Amino acid sequence: MRLSTQILAAMILIVAFVGGLSGEAVRVLEEQRLKDKLSEQTIQIISLLSGLTLEAIISEDIPIIETSIREAVERIPSLSSIEVQDESGKNIGRWPNSLILNSNSQIEYQQDIEFEGEIFGRMKVTWLTAGNAKVIEESVHQARVYAVGVLALLSMLFYLLISNIVVKPLTSVHHRMLGTARRSGGKVIKLPKHAALEFHALASSVDMLENVLSQQEKREKELEEARRASDSASRSKSEFLANMSHEIRTPMNGVIGMAELLLETTLDRDQQCYAETISKSGSALLIIINDILDFSKIEAGKLELVPTAFDLRRAIEDVVVLMSSRAHQKDVEITMRYGLDLPIGFNGDVGRIRQIMTNLVGNAVKFTLDGHVEIDVGGVVSDNIATITFSVIDTGIGIPEDKISSIFSEFEQVDGASNRKFEGTGLGLAISMRLVKLMGGLISVTSEPDKGSKFSFVINLPVDETVSKEEIIIDVEMQGKRVLIVDDLPVNRIILTERLASWDINTVAVESGDEALALLEREYSEGRPFDLAILDFQMPKMDGRALGVEIKRNSGINELPLVMLSSVDQSNEVGQLRSIGFHDVLLKPVRASMLFNVLASVFHVHSQQPMLEVIKPQAASNPIVSDTDAAIKILVAEDNKTNQLVLKSMLNSENIELLIAENGVEAVENLAEFDPDMILMDISMPEMDGMEATQIIRIFEEGQKRHRCPIVALTANAMPGDRERCISAGMDDYLVKPIVKANLLEMIAKWGRQIPRAIVETDPPVIEHISANVVSLDDDLQLQSVTGNEDLPARRLSDLLDHDRLKEMIEDFGIDVFQEILVEFYKDVENALILLNSAVNTGEPDEIKKILHLIKGCASNLGATGLVDLCEQMKLDIEQNSDSSNAGVSKFDEVFADTRSLINEFAEAA
């Protein structure tokens, strides 16, 4: 039913109801008015008749009473009858109106007859209401007619008004909406000016809906076209990946093949380990190539598992070996714990399991700055099916709570900021989760920011008894031997204790060198000497080497055999450790079979086989050289004195002609006269920065029809997009500070001209030793803050300086030039700190950022990582409007003082 019909029907019902209600109201009023009138007339008649007939009533003189009453009755047509009673209620007489034939519709009134307060009887008067009822009905009818007529007229006017201001606009909007919904386009009907704002708003909403639907239809078409293009691109990607895989497989097969041939030759233990690592690394790379090809299958849900019989413990050990090198570079220790009751032979896709573990362990190492990464593999077996739990636990940066829910999503990373420190695509965990699900398992993560994370996955694998186990025969002489374990890491003590206990070897584990010495002396004095001590190399206060020296100095326990376990490759110090008295040196995490062989060697073989010298890798090949002796002209635009000196020292050769410009203005002014072969352009400089100078140079070259001079950007920033901004400004390449000499020479060879052979063949004298003192300034050495506050925590060299960078500079430039660079560096930083204090006090954030960039530039070139990190933190605080500038300046003073002291110690040791 239409809205107009509904409104009309409602109005008719209202009119009918109101008409009926008004008639009944009139009826009630008229009847009440009639009653009131008759009551008043009754009182008058009774009063008149009582006065005339009082004596007759008292004497009951009927004729007199009748004469008076009949006269009254006949005079009033509507009076039906009068009845008189005495004081006792006895009926004296009743006289009806003879003219009234129909006695229906009567009403009766009665009243006492009294005189001077005394009652002498009662009189009843009956009235005929038939005539009055007709009058009342006429009044009711008239009232209804008037009410209905007025209401009908008002309703019609109201209906017309509502139809005009509501129904018509709403109908037009409705038709428009129907047309929009049918995608046929509704006819645009202009709403009247008097239409309500709500209807205009509704009409606008319909317009918006039509636009949205139109855009949606357009987007659907675009998405369909994009889908077709994506399918085409996917096919192209698959072809490209297949070709790329073929190109990579060819050299990798050569690497793996040669490694396998090498393994067939006679090798010592270390060479065997190195060759196996090469072979397994190559195999792992081939697996990664296959993963790239399989990624499209993973997305399409078409990846298939290839189950085979395999040794699970060896597979996990292989992952540990592959990850150990990266962990050692970060001074992070990897430990592995394989359940003693868990079988080693299973049937499953070992490549996928290794891939998952590689992803998890690789992430753990990447996001762990210090501490350790623990691998724990355990499970239970029921009906020849093992439920295996793989856990990777680290002490890294952890995962914020709001990131945990999305950590397994594609391209999702914990450190996803534009200036993030950790590289990676963010696909590893997503692929791992899909592989675990494909195996019917579950993967989970628990984490606490700044304390570490634990990734675990559970899968079911059938046990395979056909997998051959490493045959470990426990000799009777080994059973019951007492071994002391010294390691500051609890998990390492637990792992070694469990492993040795499985070979019936008794162990005692302590966490420090002092405890070990005290225990060894006490047990020796009580007649319970230990048969072997396994020492960790890296421990606080007293490391494994120092502990070994102390043990060998003690006449009571100096015959105790010692084995060193280290997380860092100590192959270059094996001879020194053997001279101290160590029987062997093993790299952690050590394979169970290798540890057993060493123990067997200690307990049964008394001769010590000499360790073979480690062959160091050859240096990288030189950049492209040329036999020409023509000097290369290089214009350097750099305002920082320290960086100027570093560049001069790196390019100190008669075959390179350098011209230093203090800023962009000088670089532009000297361009035409100097006519350089290339320009090294710093980005941030006073007066005119590198970007602006480059644009002016390009305009000048175009206007003068000059050849285009290659310009290479020098900057301390390595943010995403920085390279693109430099290229768009007219530069040709991008070099990030700190400047590495090899990278600089390669850049010159690429853009300047082929480097004269004299430059690359004339190497500065190599410092053979950097002395033993420099070795002592290791990343593990704790140095007290030079502020003299004993309560301050000790600083590590790695927290403030890049050891390799300092050593490289001394080797490249020589100690004298290095000292000159230090002088300029100290001056630059001291002057910058004065300016920084002033800028902070005056509240100039832009100026503060410029000064911080200056400090960061010269500090990064010198390897002062503590100052670089502090610059980054202070810039971040300023961008976040953090009120910590004063605190940052005071921290600068402290870190600079510590940095200066450590660099001086390093230089003196060199």
Structure notes:
The chain is built from 27 helices and 25 strands. The chain is α/β, with parallel strands linked by helices and 910 residues long. Strands 6-8-9-11-10 form a five-stranded mixed beta sheet, with helices on both faces. Helix 15 (641-650) runs antiparallel to helix 24 and helix 25 runs antiparallel to helix 26 (865-879). The chain is elongated, with a radius of gyration of 53 Å. The model is unreliable at 416-425, 605-627 and 754-797 (pLDDT under 50).
SSE arrangement:
Layout: H1 3-59, H2 62-75, E1 79-86, E2 91-96, E3 106-115, E4 118-128, H3 130-181, H4 197-263, H5 269-300, E5 308-311, H6 312-329, E6 332-338, E7 345-348, H7 350-366, E8 371-382, E9 385-394, H8 401-404, H9 428-438, E10 442-448, E11 452-462, E12 482-486, H10 490-502, E13 506-510, H11 513-525, E14 532-536, H12 544-553, E15 562-566, H13 574-580, E16 582-587, H14 592-604, E17 625-626, E18 632-637, H15 641-650, E19 656-661, H16 664-674, E20 678-682, H17 690-704, E21 711-715, H18 722-728, E22 733-736, H19 741-752, E23 755-756, H20 757-761, H21 771-776, E24 782-783, E25 795-796, H22 797-800, H23 803-813, H24 815-842, H25 845-862, H26 865-879, H27 885-909
Parallel strand pairs: 6-8, 12-13, 12-14, 14-15, 15-16, 17-23, 18-19, 18-20, 20-21, 21-22
Antiparallel strand pairs: 1-2, 1-4, 3-4, 5-7, 8-9, 9-11, 10-11, 24-25
